[in-house]
Amino acid sequence: MHALPQDRAGVRIARLRRERHLTQTALADLAGVPYNTLTKIEQGRLEATPHAVACLARAMRVEVATIMGQPYKDDLRADELDVLIAPIREALDVYDLGADPDISARPLQTLREESEGLCAAVRAGEIKRAAGDVAGLIEETTTAAHTLGGSDGWLVLASLYRTSYDVATKLGYADLAQLSLARLDWAAQRASDAVFGGAYQYFRALAYLREGKLRTGRRLIDLGLRTIGQADPSRARDVVTGQLHLGGSVMAGRAHDEDQAMGHLAEAESIAARIGESPKVLWMAFGGTNVGVHRVSVLAELDKYDKAVEAADTLAIPHDWPKSRTSHHWAEVARSQMWMGKLEASFASLLKARRTAPQQAKYHPAVRETYASLEAAHRRLPDTFLSYGSWLTSQA
Fold it and tell me: Does residue 159 belong to any structural domain of this protein?
């Protein structure tokens, strides 16, 4: 038997609750989570939804990552990913030291192309490649930007800081993600680029979404929309505006504000209808497909799991859509199917998430928690179910 189900969110919630000398009734009251829901989460009979986790984390004054168990350090060590984190931290720390005399930076166009290649690698789910290459590129481009001056070098550096943010987020290092965002903002200001400024507020808002701090996250979405409004008209401005609305829709959905969630979705849908699919503009994958994927997520956040599954069933994802986004989508679908009691369909969606982007799926909290919730009913699932759990906790 694999170890994953014994390390699920419900077990951590129960442990944290007891450490604070709280009864289940007391914690349920403090968090605003129904008592029956809390007991089932602790018993492993229900997955802890992002909304419930945010409420429980706030009530116990811990980080969401503490409840979710991120980063999954033992597994990262087994996959030799943990050793890639320290070089990224070091690269982020030399941002203001000027040009490094020991580094001979290649031409800026070469650095830009390699930066774009890492963005593509992240979207393809190649997390290890991006994590391994980004630190050296950040150091080299830092020297180039300080040497050349002007906006172009800072924009390439901002893109690399965004990649370090993506890597840190996907591997569960929230503090490193926040540091990457601070550096992105620093570089974007030096480039005087309002589009990157709006994108920075979008990524910052998502960080607060993951931490369950929805009020601040929603304020950041509003700030991002005001910031991007200062940019000159362009396709990039439209993409960031649309993506901010999509982020706002999930934020409002998790806060159970249906009217605002649907309002943001409608704004994003209108922009997507006007500009079409724009998967490579700032690598945000904005367009009608992303609107559809976010609709599924929003309906799930609103606890309308039947509607979420229905929306997913009618959504056709293009074969060339970013694998990282597709894998995330299947993880979201699996969670909704599990809550509806569609266990075999939920596991089938987990398999799709794994096939699409295995490196990402292995460290996706929704994948792990949905699998842990399905484990109690594994006798009704195919023989491959337990091997999936072994894969989640094994060396790649």
Answer: yes
